[in-house]
Every structure is written in C-alpha cells, then in structure tokens.
Amino acid sequence: MAPAKSQPSTPFASRELNGEVLLEELTDLRNAQIHQKHLNDLVVGLRDLEGVRVSEASQRLKQLAANRFSGTPALASLLVRWAAKLKAEADVPLLIAHFERVAITSAIVSAIRRAADTLKGAR
Amino acid sequence: MGSPHTISDEAADQLAQWTPRARLLFDELLDDAGTDLQREFLQRAVASAHTPAEVHAFADELRGLSDEEAYEACTLQEDAPEDYTVSQLLRAEADPLFAFELKGGTIEPNEDLHGGTTENQLPGPLARGKRDLDDDRQKLDPLSKAVSGKKPSDSFEAESPGARAPKKMDWNDLSGGNQPAAPKKEGPSTAGGQRFLESLLAEATRSLHISWREQDVDVPGGIALADALASAAGALTRGIPVPCAVGPNPGDHRRFVVLLQLNTSGKNRAWQLYDPFSAELVWANEGDLLAKAELPFANKVNRRLTRIVLPQSLRSSF
C-alpha cells in the first residue's frame, strides 16, 4: 500500500529534470518546429490535471496527445513518453511543473535569441 | 483633484501620475466600495503602484466580499506557506492586491483602460452590448478563453511589441518593509535606455499570465546583485526560470544567460546557469556569483551578472 504522500519516482526526483532533461526536450521541440503557442496551450491543458490521481493523469496525458496535439507529433510523443513514466502520486504535480518550465524556458530562449543581436559583442 | 475621499499621501503621489479619466474612475470605485476597509485596500493598492486597470479589477473582486472575507483574502496570516520569500511576505503586508494574488486570488485587468474603446468608457447600453459580444466570442472559442483569460482577439500574437507596458511592480521587490512602496520611476537605467527582453517575453508568456521587469544590476537606479538573486530565488522556487545578462562590468551587457535552477543544500545555494549560444549548462555557487569575479562559463570575460529580468504578476499557481 502506497503511503499517503508518495515519494516521486526516479525520473521526477532527478536534479536534472528541469536542467539537462528539460534542455534536451527543448532542443527536440525546437527542431520539430513546435511553436510557443503549442507549449502554452499544453500548460493550460495540463493544469486540469492538478489533483488528479496518477492513473487517470496518465490516461488523460495520452488522450491529450492523441487529440489536442495529434498535429504536433513531437509534442504528442513527449507527452506519451512522460505518461508512461508516471508511477507515483507525487509525479503528477512535478510533471505539470516540468512542462510549465519547458514552456517558460522556451519563451526565454527564443526571446534571448531574438534580442542577442542588440547586445554589444553578443554571440 | 477634488476627491471627496480622504487620500493618503502615498496614494496621492501615484494618482498624480494617472490620467484624469483614470483618477475619475478611481473616485467612482471608492464611491462604489461597500465599506471603509475596501476603500482602504484600494488606496493601498494604488499606493503600491498598481495600474488603474489592476486597481479596477481588484475593486471588482472586493465588491462581492464582506469585510471579513476581504480581510481574509488580502491578509497573510501565520499560516503563510514556508516557500514564500521574506520579500514577498513584507510586500504583502503593504500591498493588499499583492497579498490577494499571493493567496490565490485572481484579477483580470482590462489594460485598455487608458485608451481605446472599453466597456468602462461606453454608455450603459453600449457597454452591455460590448460585454455580450465578448461573452459570445468566448463561447465560440473556449480554448482561447481558457488559455488567456481574455477575449480571443487578445491572443498573444496580437500584442503589439511597441505598446507601452503598464507600469507594474516586481512582486519580488523588497522595498520599504511595512510601508507602501515608494512611487516607481519609469525604470532603471539601461544601456541607452533599452530594454532587451521585457516586451519579447511579455508577448511570449502573456497567456501564462506572466509579465517581466528588466533591471540593471549594481548600477545607480538598478538593483543590487544580492537583491536580484533573492528575487530570482523566489521566482525559481515557483518554477519560473530567470533570464539575465552577463558582462565584465555593471552596465556592460555582453551575453544573455538563463538562471535555470536553484539547489539549496544546508547553507549553500547553487545556481544552474544556461547559455543558449554556447549551450553551456553550469552550476555556480551563490558565493561565487556574489563575488563577481568569475562565472563558470568558458568565456571568462563575462564575469558577473549585469542585468536581470524578473517575473511579476504571476498566476497564483506559480
């Protein structure tokens, strides 16, 4: 029987979840030309998962991938991969937070790239 | 101004910067406020340099509350979560709107308040017609409504990068303790007065309800590095990475990097920095950042943080 407050499973407990892992995902999404709006929409969609049990969250992630994001295979694939990694109740809020960070970091990196030319000696 | 209401000096200073129409509207908001407590909260929100649109939206939220409910909604009790930073707690004491948002309340400011045709500027029947039209638009596009909390025509693509951003306070600012914040100047001194990222980021994260404030670090009119890191820590705790510029000296911005994560172990804090151009991802001890002598990137010329772009007006969920 799982404790009331479960520990996050290994992928979600990693210190690099929102570091190296996040940046690798961002690179993949950028190569697949996923737009910022898709990421923002995803964040809003994932907020509905707050408080949802892990089994249901996993199912809804897959539904989201199959329906809302079927036109963006790279994003859908990422969702499905994470859905399979959800094991503990504590994973759900961490996954929501992770995708929020992905979206915000994407926005920041895009803005930085656009603004870099204005800096003296940039790049 | 001739307001029939007693206005605090701090609020009066802020109101002096508002347009006559906005001041008139504020008088009406005070008239409409049900109780003295609500009027006091509105004045404090004004004194804390919130925009007219934010104060208006705040008044709309307060109007439906009893005094007890309003006090509860706008006051941090001893049950404040531990992850609130000291600066957030101090600011919340002076700024009821900030406390309201910190406790999960949301407002929906109509930033068109200063200009353009808004419901507030229309005669009653026309205003109702516009409101109905907006409702219909939202019914037609529920996703847009869910994403932005605004009508579909306000999607983030439609935002004009050149539009003047409403003056807002950084919610992580540590300014003035229990006293309402001093009136904000138009902004910190920047390289040629230029803000590099603020509007770009605002455009990209608008639907996530995040706006940004760009500040030079360790220059007159800017923010001290220690305070900048304290504010950045608050943002990262809530899951918001923080862009900043690095360079050899204050005011000399050479490169943008991102403060991606913060790791606390005992008394030690380590910051994870990411340089999108060199693709370097490094950890730096806070002490090294504060020493301003060297950053752990390959390029050693850029040895210190020179500018920071802090998130503000965050959704309660962050």
Helix count of chain A, per DSSP? 6
| Secondary structure tally, helices of chain B | 12
Give the end-to-end Cα distance of chain A, rounded to a whole number of Å. Answer: 54 Å
Low-confidence stretches of chain B: 114-192
- Average per-residue pLDDT of chain A, rounded, comes to 90
Rg of chain A is 16 Å
Helix coverage percent of residues of chain A?
55-70%
- Largest interface, by Cβ-Cβ below 8 angstroms: which chains and how many residues each? A-B, 36 and 37 residues
Shape of chain B: elongated
Uncertain runs of chain A: none
Shape descriptor of chain A reads: globular
Order of helical and strand elements of chain B = HHHHHHHHHHEHEEEEHE
Main sheet summary of chain B: 6 strands, antiparallel
Strand percent estimate of chain A: under 5%
**What is the makeup of the main sheet of chain A?**
none
By DSSP, the count of extended strands of chain B is 6
Rg of chain B (CA only): 21 Å
What class would the helix/strand composition of chain A place it in?
mainly alpha
How many angstroms separate the termini of chain B? 39 Å
Question: What assembly state would you assign to the polypeptide chains in this entry?
Answer: heterodimer
Task: Sum up the structure in keywords.
A: 123 residues; mainly alpha; 6 helices; 64% helix; globular; B: 318 residues; alpha+beta; 12 helices; 37% helix
